[in-house]
Specification:
572 residues; two-stranded antiparallel ribbon; 23 helices; Growth Hormone, Chain: A; mainly alpha
Length: 572
């Protein structure tokens, strides 16, 4: 605000401007952006002279467009998982004409190479979106996904299919990073959680729909990729009519366009105030001193401990094997001998049973989103991981017995009845595993990075942790079928995963703090310890950040009413 002189105030962490607490609503930000808290309602006087807050007005068509984008993006993300879960048993069916040798290893690579592409897509998505804009990175991601689908459809060799899967993976890596960022940045903060919940729910619907579509088209599965172009084209069309993120405009000095976007989610006066605040914050996060290399250096030095936690959680989320269960659920059922009465083709029966896996996973993620704010992430993890461990031991035992149990019994009928009982128990342990993993780990991991990493590093940290997670996903899915196809490997693969769960439990117990309902600063002090204060002083000098307060009564009233010490830094 021009004409208002700041004065020095109490010391706070310079890198966490705009932060409320670990449950606060904010954008993820990108690798060079900072988050804005649009929940601050600018205060005015009522007829009695009392200071009151007025919520901003919203452009209803704009909000509806965000919901449509969230739906199409979620459907596309889930659809890609669902169709692979349904068709991976039948990959060879579309390559019969050239008499190619397609075994379990080729099927594994067809599934896993998507994750390799997504790893590199997520690694560079933050920096690219800063250069060309959030909107354009969404369009680029859609273009790559669509191109990958077309390469798969028209390719005659399995090697071409690998290329298509990798390219669509790169596009999905872009989208998985930028869509939540975009929804959080441009949408009214009042509706951010709802739009992101719609994104998650639509992803679940896409998974189930893709799997069920794969059942009738399993022998001609290339049609599924043709159908996948529908949400791709729909997302492109909707994105073309959406505005660019105001954060991109502000980051690149185009304040006039940023103001236009802000007016979609708040009154004109509030939009101008918000722009002033963001322009003030911008001076601390842009310039020659805040380079890409500098932020990497900060992550691996000053914030190495919280960054290690972020990387570890992302890695263990994959090492416990949940992605392999989603992709190879049909194979798991087939190896255990589970089938349905009246279904002659065992592979079809396995695909139908896979609905239990996917449906349970979606249900578990919904439950996780509800209970984590109440219980905290660490409590969920410390309860969920032992449950996952027990269920994996049960899966190992019942898989062995379903294949080799009671072999000394000369009565074949008794032998089959024994195996049937073990297959029923196997199904129980499988559902228990998926439910515990989706509630106790997948859901708990998703938001922890934003609760322990400062804003200006958040995009970079998310990109790197996502990269690590996707690479681990690639390795797990590249070898999982080899174990399932081995006579002994089909049951001891679950013991290997159980060992990973033990490591995950030790990591959570020893390294991960409870982060819910705490500020990022509080979490950092707990993680880094006494050294944090010294590092904080060093970084203030390095970034030349001054701490300010204002004498303006209206802004001070806003600060006092919110009881938000960080807001003082934002209200200049």
């Amino acid at each position: 605000m021009e004409g208002e002189e700041p004065e020095m105030m109490q010391e706070e962490d310079p890198m966490m401007m705009g932060e409320e607490n670990s449950m606060g609503d904010k954008s993820l930000g990108s690798s060079t952006s900072f988050a804005s808290d649009k929940t601050r309602f600018y205060l005015k006087k009522d007829q009695f002279g009392e200071t009151v807050g007025e919520p901003p007005s919203y452009d209803c068509c704009f909000v509806a467009s965000l919901y449509i984008l969230a739906i199409t993006a979620g459907l596309l993300q889930g659809y890609q998982v669902g169709i692979i879960a349904g068709l991976e048993l039948f990959v060879a069916d579309e390559y019969k004409d050239l008499k190619q040798d397609i075994g379990s290893h080729e099927r594994e690579l067809f599934v896993a190479i998507f994750s390799l592409g997504a790893a590199f897509g997520s690694l560079f998505s933050g920096e690219i979106s800063d250069k060309i804009g959030r909107k354009w990175i969404i369009l680029l991601g859609d273009a790559l996904v669509g191109a990958g689908f077309l390469i798969i459809v028209f390719g005659k060799k399995i090697g071409v299919g690998f290329v298509g899967r990798c390219i669509s993976g790169v596009g999905s890596g872009f989208l998985s990073f930028v869509i939540p960022v975009y929804l959080g940045e441009v949408g009214p903060q009042k509706w951010t959680k709802l739009s992101q919940s719609i994104f998650g729910f639509s992803s679940g619907i896409g998974m189930i729909g893709g799997l069920d579509l794969a059942i009738p088209f399993r022998h001609h599965w290339k049609l599924l990729f043709k159908l996948g172009l529908i949400p791709v084209v729909a997302q492109v069309l909707f994105t073309c009519f959406m505005p660019e993120s105001h954060m991109y405009y502000i980051n690149n000095g185009n304040d006039e366009e940023a103001l236009k976007v802000l007016k979609n989610s708040m009154d004109e006066g509030d939009a101008e105030k918000e722009l002033s605040i963001l322009k003030y914050e911008r001076q601390f996060f842009f310039g020659d001193g805040v380079t890409f290399a500098k932020k990497w250096g900060d992550l691996f030095s000053t914030y190495s401990k919280p960054f290690f936690i972020s990387i570890g959680m992302s890695t263990f989320a994959q090492l416990i094997g949940i992605s392999a269960f989603l992709y190879y659920g049909s194979d798991i059922f087939e190896q255990a001998g589970n089938d349905l009465e009246g279904i002659q083709e065992r592979e079809e029966s396995s695909d139908i049973l896979d609905n239990f896996v996917v449906g349970t996973y979606v249900f578990g993620n919904i439950i996780s989103a509800i209970i984590i704010p109440l219980t905290g992430r660490k409590w969920i993890l410390t309860v969920g991981l032992p449950t996952i461990f027990v269920s994996l031991l049960g899966l190992s035992y019942t898989m062995h017995e379903a294949n080799y149990g009671d072999q000394n019994d000369s009565d074949k009928l008794d032998q089959e009845e024994y195996k049937h009982t073990d297959r029923a128990a196997f199904l129980f342990f499988l559902m228990l595993y998926v439910l515990a993993a989706s509630i106790g780990f997948s859901g708990a991991v998703s938001g922890i990075t934003s609760e322990i990493i400062p804003n200006y590093l958040l995009g970079t940290a998310v990109s790197l942790s996502s990269f690590t997670g996707w690479i681990t996903n690639f390795i797990i899915n590249l070898f999982f079928l080899d174990f399932l196809d081995d006579p002994q490997g089909k049951w001891y693969v679950f013991l290997i995963l159980a060992f990973n769960v033990v490591l995950a439990y030790l990591f959570v117990t020893l390294c991960v703090p409870e982060t819910i309902n705490k500020t990022i600063k509080e979490n950092l002090i707990q993680i880094i310890g006494p050294e944090y204060k010294k590092q904080q002083v060093k970084m203030r000098k390095e970034y030349n950040i001054k701490f300010v307060n204002v004498k303006n009564e209206r802004i001070q009233a806003e600060i006092d009413s919110r009881k938000d010490t960080y807001l003082a830094l934002n209200s200049i």
